[in-house]
Write a structure and sequence with these properties.
With about 200 residues, this protein is mostly beta strands. It folds into two domains: about 80 residues, RimM (Elongation Factor Tu (Ef-tu), domain 3, Beta Barrel); about 100 residues, Roll (SH3 type barrels), CATH 2.30.30.240. It has four helices and twelve strands, in the order ββαβββαβαββββββα. The protein has a six-stranded antiparallel beta barrel with strand order 1-2-5-4-3-6.
């Protein structure tokens, strides 16, 4: 099985460099000279170098020498073998799909159907019993417990986040509405969901 570590977004400059949208929390370890990747269209690419520039990750591949070659890579995913990924406190999307979701009180509220990659952090996509789909940011404050082996995710959402539960104006738990402010997210929190 292969997992996505980045998506190539666009060329940078004239020498074949490209910008990445990361799907890994360890770019400094992943994007080093000599690292090999397969692309989503079946190409094999070897990294010449990777570096940060203005808050973005840029890379250069041995096989790409100019902007024309870089343009051909736009939108491609960079893949690695799943066995090469060893980040802790992170999961593959296929590991989470289908897990039962319940509140910390034990009330079942749905199941995980995937992960969405957002700019700030990843989010679980949950299908509620009504069929509504809800995004839960993957931060410890909102998702305190993930047990892949046990098939369970426990969440502690603020009132009103889940479509099937009443919000604060409808008799929901107003005491938890303060969670809608600062999430208290840390760099470690944002790792959750990105096991690449």
């Amino acid at each position: 099985m292969q997992v996505v570590v980045a998506v190539i977004t666009r060329p940078h400059g004239l020498k074949g460099d490209v910008a990445l949208e990361l799907r890994t929390d360890s770019p400094q370890e992943r994007f080093i000279a000599g690292a090999a990747f397969q692309t989503s269209d079946g190409r094999q690419l070897t990294l010449r170098r990777g570096w940060q520039h203005s808050g973005r990750w840029l890379v250069a591949f041995r096989e790409v020498a100019d902007r024309t070659g870089a343009e051909e890579l736009r939108g491609l995913e960079l893949l690695i073998d799943a066995r090469e990924s060893d980040e802790e406190d992170a999961w593959y999307p296929h590991e989470l799909a289908g897990l039962t979701v319940e509140l910390i009180t034990g009330q079942k509220v749905g199941e995980v159907i995937g992960i969405q990659h957002l700019p700030a952090q990843d989010a679980l996509i949950i299908r509620e019993p009504s069929g509504a789909q809800t995004l839960i940011p993957m931060v410890t404050q909102l998702i305190p417990h993930i047990d892949v082996a046990g098939g369970l995710v426990r969440i502690d959402p603020p009132a009103g986040l889940l479509a099937d539960l009443p919000g604060p104006d409808e008799g929901g738990d107003a005491a938890r509405s303060d969670l809608t402010g600062d999430s208290g997210e840390t760099d470690a929190d944002s790792k959750r969901g990105r096991r690449t």
